[in-house]
Amino acid sequence: MRYSTTTLCAVVALATAAPVAMAQELPGSFDGVTIDAKLIGGQQYETLYSRIAEWEEATGATVNVISKKNHFELDREIKSDIATGQLSWCVGSNHSSFAPQYPGIYADLATLLPEDALADFVDANIQAATLGGKLVMLPRAQFDVSALYYQKDLYEDADNKSAFEAEYGYPLAVPETWDQVADQAKFFADAPNFYGTQYAGKEEAIAGRFYELLVANGGEFLNAEGEPAFNSEAGVEALQWFVDLYDAKAVPVGVPNYLWDDLGQGFASGTVALNLDWPGWASFFNDPDASRVAGNVGVAPPPKGSGDKRTGWSGFHGFSVTEDCANPEAAASLVWFLTNEDSQKLESAAGPLPTRDSVWTYVIEEAKGDDYRTEVLEAFQEAAATAFPVPQTPSWIEITNVLYPELQAAILGDKTPQEALDDAAKESTYILEDAGEL
Amino acid sequence: MDENATARLKKTASNWTLNVALFVAMAIICLPGLWIVLNSLRPTVEIMAKPPIWIPQSLSFDAYVAMFSGIGEGGIPVISYFRNSVIIAVTSTIISLAIGMSGGYAFARYRFKGKGGWFLGLMLTRAVPGIALSLPLFFLYARVGLIDTHAGMILAYTALNVPFTIWLIDGFFRQVPRDLAEAAQIDGCTRWQAFWQVEFPLARPGIASAGIFAFLTSWNEFALASQLTRSTDSKTLPVGLLDYTAEFTIDWRGMCALAVVMIIPALILTYAVQKHLVSGLTTGAIKG
Amino acid sequence: MKAWRLPPPVLLLLPAVIVLAAIVLLPLLLSLYSSFTPFRLTRPETIYDWVGFRNYERIFTDADFWIAFGRTVLLLTVALNLEMILGLGLAMLVERFTRGQRILRTILMFPMMFSPILVGFQFKFMFNDNVGLVNNALQSLGLTDQAIPWLIDGTLAFIAICVAEVWSSTSVFAIFILAGLMAMPRDPLEAARVDGCTPWQTFRYVTWPFLMPFAFIAMTIRSLDVARAYDIIKIMTDGGPAGRTEVLWTLIARTAYSDARMGMANAMAYVAILLSIAFTAYFFSQLGKARAQVAADW
Question: Where is the signal peptide (chain A) (predicted)?
């Protein structure tokens, strides 16, 4: 056993030295190789892992899953691994929002895989997965961008239509801009029984929502020099949107403590009119066993901000190969296999969005005849077209941790939006300076 | 006559008040538990309903069936988690009892220099919060290869439990009169035999109560387990709860079902050891 | 030969000392060292930079830290006292029953079987302002037509956290005090009744002094074990919103892992450990006094 691994190492070393000569057939053959993998756990993600057995059969290698945890626990674990130098495992689940935090531990997949293996991926996704010129992860069919879910019958009700037009001076229709969302949310709200809309109120969640509205309003988070620039006019306008809805009681009074699960459950309970949310909830909302609003759900692309741009904070899950991996070719083959066309078809069948052009075409074709699914896919495809990732700084998560308490302070009225954003910008500057980015 | 009747009436009334008070208190204690059981049996649409549905309309064991089915059908490796939890909690309880007995006996039966200081020192190791321990412990474990192993978890929980087991068991040995063991030794027993045949049976209730505390602590611990376990080789049930959360979603019903699976063994064990528990704690406390 | 044999108490204590030294002391020394460095998880080489007391200096001038510190002390004081009073009441109610005690005692211990993380999820959901059990019940009973922001308002969130903490830990007190009640000799009670004491006097001057050691043991165990509360708060509010429920443990955990600033987090942890040691040592000394009192009386 020991002997064979050593030979293999030699072969691999040769192969990496001359990647062109390799120009391998994927998935390739890796008899006797063992790949240690850290995968994200949870029901939504595990269907894909049944494909691992097929890869093992095709290549003769074995995959040893050494860790399976949720998103945030895995992040903690990888940070602990970096701190203790335990990076000899090969394949790890990764996320586009977290990837910039792990500088240098992941290998460039563009050199490990032939060029045509990457051609089918959505360009924007590949760009977001490329950090400092290195393609650090391949996206799986777990692309996340938000669209606007709404209760259809509210827009069909004649009383609503006339009352709304009388009050706001324009006809009631599914909102195209965030200002319209605010008007309609206030119009529909009847606290504590019914709310116009809602938003996540803490951690990266609200920081991300603020960030996308800032961009949609024409602002930028970090300026060209990399300094925090979110305390601009566009930033204040964005934060004011959150504050106004909270003051008008158009959102549940508990939102500053809400995370994604609270939002999804809230909309499913039928007590919320409009809900900007992720694709993972689409089938849940329309399932009569899970949701009160099943059959009454409409989906529209995310509205635009004052800069005439749609909000579109996006992210995706994927897989990376470590620099310390003893068998990078085999690991890259596994990563490719788990993100190839068949894998993405399998995964997106359950609802998540793909990251390959061919699979987008395929799922839309498959959805023909299912009106709801078609509506969902069209809305999200539109959203994906204008989506953008988080600012690509290793300090993003750390900045969100100083930003969100300030956003909350403004929402709860402890500070004015300008004060809150100025304070957050000051703290973010310290973080960036400490990290040597400024 | 009249006075007597009033007094009796008063007594019955106050008795009833106290009974009602007890009933209310017990209801408050049980309610969250029953609520979890109920939620594990009904669909999410009912759990999240507003206006609320107080009387359940459709009950099913779907969540439990799903939990045990394969990956991709809503299943989680619950059998592995359960096995890990049992192995880790039981073994670490037994080891901490053994160490606690030997340590407790030393404090109860011998005089030595700095005894009070040693005792307080041992207790204070428990004051270190798990969150402060988790990373340095991870460092050490990574060096010696104990990450994601049963042995590593058992060792950690043993350290967590030893201070309390020593304390409780110390109290019980103090309670057993010295003369008994001495008499046995005069009758020809060795010190070792005297311990097992005379002192141990008398202190058994204390050992049982220390055991149940240790077991419950290990069974429910989360902070250390989430740092030191990684795969189904060693993940325990509390860590498994997080399998029902994804980046954006949470399966509340499934989580409740797993919670029920977690609570039942603890409940059965506590009921079984119950008899010893209270009589056990009784003696330990006073004669410090 | 004999000189080489360890005395029995040393031998008997050795296993405990070895385990605790390996699992608690050694890691603590490591984290003590790192609290003098700017150690960041994502940049391992920073563990070799020695910055002296800089982390501690920053902590001592950091208002947010001291507010969290004060809130932690307040939470501990309120929760431990409430638990003690409620535990005493519960124990006295249960003690009156001669039949069905085993069932009652098992129910009494029910909350101890809930993993703290589960308690957190459960109470977070119950206190949800929109679909939570508490607001639903209050609204159904017509007590309020508002959605009460349980986890948002600083005071209400503090109350909600206290409720969760008290629910999960009153059992410990109840069980210990119940043990004390059952061990109590009957003669002094009888004597007090003959002397014409009111029930309150009997309780105050006979029962309570006898129960004190039990209450303090429970106090000590709980104050040693307070980090349990971390799991609950982490899930319920994680210190938010806008830092209104920030306690030491949530602050430390976020600094350590989310911000990856482990050196700073360890310095904070050391200040937090001093706090628990102070609490524990105080209860320990009270326990000693109470025991001496009982020993003198009986």
Answer: 1-23
Query: Measured between CA atoms, how close is A436 to chain C, in angstroms?
Result: 12
Please count the residues of chain B.
288
Across A177-181, C100-104, C231-235, least confident range: C100-104
**What is the pTM (predicted TM-score) of this model?**
0.82
pLDDT tens-place string over residues B232-285:
888 899 888 887 876 667 778 888 899 999 999 988 888 888 776 655 555 544
Portion 100-159 of B in contact with C at CB < 8 A: 100, 102-103, 105-107, 110, 112, 118, 120, 122-133, 135-137, 139-140, 155-156, 158-159
> From the CA of B184, how many Å to the nearest CA of chain C?
19
Check residue A13 and give its pLDDT.
43
Nearest-angstrom CA–CA distance, C298 and C295: 6
pLDDT beneath 50: ranges in chain A: 1-23
- Residue pLDDT, tens place only, B154-198: 999 999 899 888 988 887 787 777 777 788 888 888 878 888 888
Residues of chain A with Cβ-Cβ distance to C47 below 8 Å are 83
Residue of A39, A40, A46 to mutate when probing chain B, most B C-beta within 10 A: A46
CATH number of the domain that residue C164 is part of: 1.10.3720.10
> Closest chain A residue to B145 measured between Cα atoms?
A86
Please state, in angstroms and rounded to a whole number, the distance separating the CA atoms of residues B211 and B217: 10
Chains touching chain A, criterion 3+ CB pairs below 8 Å = B, C
The encoded tokens of residue C132 equal: 């939570």
Number of domains in chain C: 1
| B71-286 to CATH, choices 1.10.3720.10, 3.60.9.10, 4.10.910.10, 3.30.390.10 | 1.10.3720.10
Q: What order of strands is seen across the sheet that includes strand A147-151?
A: A274-277, A147-151, A297-300
Report yes or no for ipTM above 0.95: no
* Extents of the domains making up chain B: 2-60, 71-286
Helices (H), chain B: 2-41, 44-47, 62-68, 78-109, 115-124, 130-144, 150-175, 178-186, 191-194, 200-220, 223-228, 237-240, 252-286
- At A185 the pLDDT is 95
Residue entry with tokens 């939990």: B67
